[in-house]
Specification:
Layout lengths: L6 H18 L3 H20 L15 H13 L5 H21 L4 H8 L16 H9 L6 H16 L3 H5 L6 E2 L5 E5 L5 E5 L2 H13 L23 H18 L10 H14 L4 H6 L5
Antiparallel strand pairs: 1-2, 2-3
Helix pairs in contact: 1-4, 2-4, 3-4, 3-5, 4-5, 6-10, 7-9, 7-11
Length: about 290
């Protein structure tokens, strides 16, 4: 039996393939984020609005519906204001696309685009002291391969000042361990940053690559950090590893480890330590990309 394709399905596919991909040249991180937004929007339309995906059409969307969806993200899924705004950015981009593709409802798309992003509360980003970083890394056992992977991961996350997605996307080909040693990070907007590595970090990475047989040309494009199935670790997986050892470190020295910790805190910590060491601000901005 043939199933009719809805106008929503057609426009959404064209948005991702033609607009984001071919016209805008959006990064894979942007595409992934936008994809997740529309997965949530479809779930909302099915579960809350009662419209099944095969019946979902453009006429079902309005300013009030999108506002209700954004509120649902905060109230029912406990999304932060920042995450809410990120989801709205994807919808706003879709409406910009629709203004040209479906001008018969131009007023509707402009009305959705006029929704104001919420102001995010100002907060102070915590950072760990050098002693805090040392305490954190000391909690990682190195008697088994799993622990050695986690030590390599966390030490490189701090050493490179990488964003968690940049770390998760690394492959052995991104590393150069001969002098001058460096790691190549693929960041936002497809921008590449090259970060030098200290000798101690090079030793850790060398041992890790040898142990996991990642130091051969045939494995140069495999995930640098992977799970038991061989798939690359996700951002949530990296965060889980960090929080596990942070809890252990907090039990030993609660004054060194904040209650709320994330991979970004290690990134911010690296920038602060470079600043405290008298490193030029331009270097801090261009290498870790913090300031």
């Amino acid at each position: 039996m043939k199933t009719d394709v809805t106008d929503f399905a057609e426009y959404l596919e064209s948005f991702f393939t033609d607009y984001l991909g071919a016209e805008q040249g959006a990064s894979k991180h942007t595409v992934r984020s936008y994809r997740d937004t529309f997965i949530l929007l479809i779930d909302y339309m099915c579960d809350v609005q009662g419209i099944s995906i095969d019946k979902l059409s453009m006429k079902n969307f309005s300013r009030d519906v999108i506002l209700s969806f954004l509120n649902w993200l905060q109230d029912n899924r406990n999304n932060s204001v920042s995450t809410r705004n990120q989801r709205y950015a994807a919808i706003r981009s879709f409406c910009e696309f629709l203004e040209r593709k479906d001008p018969t409802r131009l007023a509707t798309w402009q009305s959705i685009r006029s929704i104001k992003s919420k102001k995010t509360p100002m907060s102070t980003v915590n950072h760990l002291t050098v002693d805090g970083i040392k305490c954190l890394l000391e909690q990682v056992p190195t008697k088994d391969r799993h622990g050695r992977r986690n030590l390599t991961l966390l030490s490189l996350l701090y050493e490179s000042g990488a964003r968690v997605q940049e770390l998760a996307d690394l492959t052995p080909s991104c590393l150069r361990l001969d002098k001058p040693a460096l790691v190549r990070l693929h960041g936002k907007g497809n921008k590449i940053r090259v970060v030098p590595l200290r000798e101690q970090q090079v030793d850790i990475l060398t041992t890790y690559l040898e142990e996991n047989r990642l130091n051969t040309p045939s494995r140069s494009e495999r995930p640098l950090f992977f799970n038991s199935s061989g798939a690359k670790l996700t951002c949530s997986g990296v965060t889980y590893i960090l929080k596990t050892y942070a809890a252990m470190a907090r039990a030993v020295h609660p004054e060194l480890i904040p209650k709320q910790i994330s991979p970004h805190i290690l990134r911010h910590s690296k920038a602060m330590h470079l600043l405290q060491a008298g490193v030029n601000l331009v270097y801090i901005r261009d290498i870790p990309g913090h300031l």
